[in-house]
Amino acid sequence: MRRTERLSQYLPYCLPALILAVVVYVRIRLLTVPLERDEGEYAYMGQLLLKGIPPFTHAYTMKLPGVSLAYACFMFMFGQTPAGIHAGLMIVNGICSYLVYLLTKRLFDRTTALISCASYAVLTLTSSVFGVFAHATHFVVLFSLTGFLLLLRSIDKRKVILLFLSGLCFGVAITMKQHAIVLSIFAVQYLLLRAWKSPGSDKKNGVTGSILFLLGMVIPYALVVLWMVNTGSFANFWFWTVQYTREYTSGMSLESGWYNFKDTFSDIAKPQLPLWLLAGFGSIALFTQKSRCIDRPFVCGFLLFSFLAVCPGLFFRGHYFVLFLPAVAIMTGAGLSSAELVFPSITSVRFPHVIQALILLAAVTYSLYQEKDNFFILTPLEMSRATYGVNPFPESLQIADYIKKHTKPDDTIAVLGSEPEIIFYADRLSATGHIYMYGLMEDQPYAERMQLQMIREIEAARPTFIVFVNVDFSWLARESSRKTIFNWGGRYIDSLYDTVGTIDIIGPNSTRYLWDTEELRHYQPVSGNYVAVYKRKGGV
Q1: Are 330 and 104 spatial neighbours (Cβ–Cβ below 8 Å)?
Q2: If you placed Cys at 510, which of 153, 185, 366, 506 could pair as Cys (CB 3.0 to 4.6 Å)?
Q3: How are beta strands 530-536 and 497-507 bridged, if at all?
Q4: Angle formed by the axes of helices 296-308 and 325-342, to 10°?
Q5: pTM across the whole model
Q6: CA-CA distance, 134 to 170, in Å (whole number)?
Q7: Which DSSP string do the residues of 458-474 spell out, in sequence order?
Q8: Residues 68, 333: Cα–Cα separation, whole Å
């Protein structure tokens, strides 16, 4: 019997450890999965940083350069490969899981924290949030959770310097992705609420701490602005991160946003339904006082604002929900731990931890089983295709390898399509800063200007290779899209370039590569999804 009791005591530790080990195994198995578009953007910009080239000179983006700096660090440590980048993500995800543990322990108890930690690791692995791909939202979670922990610790210890460090973390989170502003607003509101409720003698410290917090939050953005001014890139920086971003985020109607939310949330919740149900149960228990939470205002605010952080622009893309998952994981742990308060009969069981462990094991097993092919069977290349369909992410590796072998380091290339991963793999400079085509196709006032700028840059750079991506998802063109870039591209390529490669994506498991063959002259792609590679004619 003593042995059984000892096993019951160890279960709260052993099962989360086992779950974390499985998650790490899956991430290691899929380290070499090809980069997708967002990763290609960050990797290319990080590559430029390692070469001493500042942001917004050879690559334009609406995102602040925080993630590109993080990518540069990972690539410096682990190499400029998908495996190196995903190794960095695995470290970030592990740290985030531990931060979820620390935050939950501060708000509830150790057992709840262990459950939440394991739940977060599983929730962030699912393909519906593109969990094995290093999106910016993972980095927002890293710095915002650190900021919240420092904020709560500063209140406990009454050390205002911790508030400054907390604000600094939120400022860095904003440079990772602007969605972090929503979490920062909650942090400020919570801080002001605690200061207002403090005794009169502590109000002065509360005001001082709030000022230090805001100062810390502003510093990272101010440093980015000074950096852009110093490099002469401020005009591009301001246009892309403020002017164009304002148009980009204001184009979605409420009705379209609602449909986006329903479709995406359904895809996210289905494969991990038991964990989400436990999180829902924990949220209900929180509002009905059936919870051991020691700071309900913080948990309620954290839950609300974590969801609101997903909402800007009303796009509700899968990887945006990573911002919500720390709150979901905390509620999952709270739901499982609250069960014995809602159902007192559980407490009467000799080993209640065993029941909790079995429920958690069942929920996690269900989640992993739902995606067993992606996690345990498919190769990294097959995993990319299963997740992103006919997008040419696996093919980008061979395309870039051909270009790299047939160019000099100072040659430039142009990609007519949203495939910056090709530029990164080839390790060549882009002939244009437009590494995405989406902005050029959108119904917004700057689209024509962007297309003309891209044309001028390509003509001035005279790229050795031009890659045209004939895949709908690489353009997202619509009937209202301006056709200037297409009309120019056809004439420019026909007069100055020869076809040297066609990559025909025939089906999910079939791609045909043709390089420098006589057949290229007469070959017609079998599918509507293909990539054409053109080389500048000699002497032109």
Answers
A1: yes
A2: 506
A3: antiparallel
A4: 140
A5: 0.94
A6: 20
A7: HHHH--SEEEEEE-GGG
A8: 33
Cβ 285 vs Cβ 341: under 8 Å: yes
The separation between CA 400 and the C-alpha centre of its own chain, rounded to angstroms, equals: 24
Look at residue 497 and give its three-state secondary structure. strand
How far is Cα 105 from Cα 504, in angstroms, rounded to an integer? Answer: 53
SS3 84: helix
Which three-class secondary structure state does DSSP give residue 339?
Answer: helix
Instruction: Report the first-to-last Cα separation within the chain, whole angstroms.
Output: 86
385's tokens = 């295709």
Q: What is the domain partition of the chain in residue ranges?
A: 2-135+234-377, 389-536
Mean pLDDT, 10 residues at a time, the chain of 540 residues = 59 88 98 98 98 96 97 98 98 98 96 96 97 98 98 88 96 97 95 77 70 95 98 96 93 90 94 96 84 89 97 95 98 86 54 78 96 97 96 97 97 98 98 97 95 98 98 94 95 96 93 92 91 86
The β-bridge partners of 414 are: 466
| 3-state SS track over 219-281 | HHHHHHHHHHHHHCCHHHHHHHHHHHHHHHHCCCCHHHHHHHHHHHHHHHHHHHHHHHHHHHH
What are 107's two structure tokens? 């708000």
Q: Angle at the Cα of 166 (from 164 to 171), degrees rounded to 5? A: 95
